[in-house]
Amino acid sequence: MKSLVIVCLLEVVFGWWSTGHMLVAQIAQNVLQQENPEVLSIANQILSPLYGPLTHGISSSFVESAVWCDDIKSYNFDVYNNWHFIDKPYNYDGFANATTSGEDILFALSNSIWTLQSQNYSVAILETSIALRYVLHFMGDYHQPLHVTNFWSRNFTQGDEGGNLFPITFDNQINELHALWDSCMGVWADDLPRPLNSDGWYNLNMWAEWCTGNNTKQDLASELAIKELSLWQYDTYRIAIDYAYYGIKPNEKPSEEYLKRGWKIVLKQLALGGYRLANLLISLFGQTSALS
């Protein structure tokens, strides 16, 4: 039955880039609503000062706020672009100049978490609201395999920028490997319109249930047992090597087998990112009874 669902979904383009980030946040929200609604309430209070016109009316909820870090790129606010990646080299050809980036996802997450841990939310209103938006967004990026990898080879002597320079044949919208993974194998290649309407919320919650239904907390118990933030990158990096770069060459069309295999990984990573985000927020706000 699962394989039938995968095949059917791969025949239809629904929408991601923003949808994938909202799915991670939706999964976290579903967990918090069931297990710790007070934490969700605190998170919404921290986010709420930037709801409305200050975020152009499209990031006025916990879930939609997960996209804000990409939204600001539309206004040429590019100074923090490196924060979306960890350019850990995949360098099997042994290029001596393969290097990692400086400030990256781990830097951004660690500093944003420190802001939320150290500041009074009712005093540092703007700072904590922005910091939480960073956390919501970068927890999604951290679980996308091609956001933690940079492939060096004879074809990519300066790296492929996480698949952005790795050309593939797919469709008019997706022509490089990074976009294929960002769009969840093309399944979520078109953004859900924001602000979300009732249909958007319905679809998002349904898709979140697909992710968690195929990947329960019990299924991911070994991954969730790893609590150290800095260690999460290694599994994601390994997935990039074993799955994202395996079975495809530059300018090739992804095979049906590649897309099916990638789709399963995508569902798992979205679920894992959502569970970890919920756990992180509980660790940050679980002992906080008020904004003080």
Give the radius of gyration. Answer: 19 Å
Uncertain segments: 1-16
- CATH homologous superfamily label: P1 Nuclease
Number of strands: 2
CATH class: Mainly Alpha
Approximately what portion of the residues adopt beta-strand conformation? Answer: under 5%
Task: Give the H and E element order.
Answer: HHHHEHHEHHHHH
End-to-end C-alpha gap: 49 Å
Number of domains: 1
Mean pLDDT level: 90
Family: Belongs to the nuclease type I family.
Keywords: Disulfide bond, Endonuclease, Glycoprotein, Hydrolase, Metal-binding, Nuclease, Signal
Protein name: Aspergillus nuclease S(1)
GO molecular function, one term: metal ion binding
Show the helix and strand layout.
Elements: H1 2-9, H2 18-35, H3 37-47, H4 68-71, E1 89-90, H5 105-118, H6 125-141, E2 150-151, H7 177-182, H8 198-214, H9 221-224, H10 232-244, H11 256-285
Helix pairs in contact: 2-3, 2-6, 2-8, 2-11, 5-6, 6-11, 8-11, 10-11
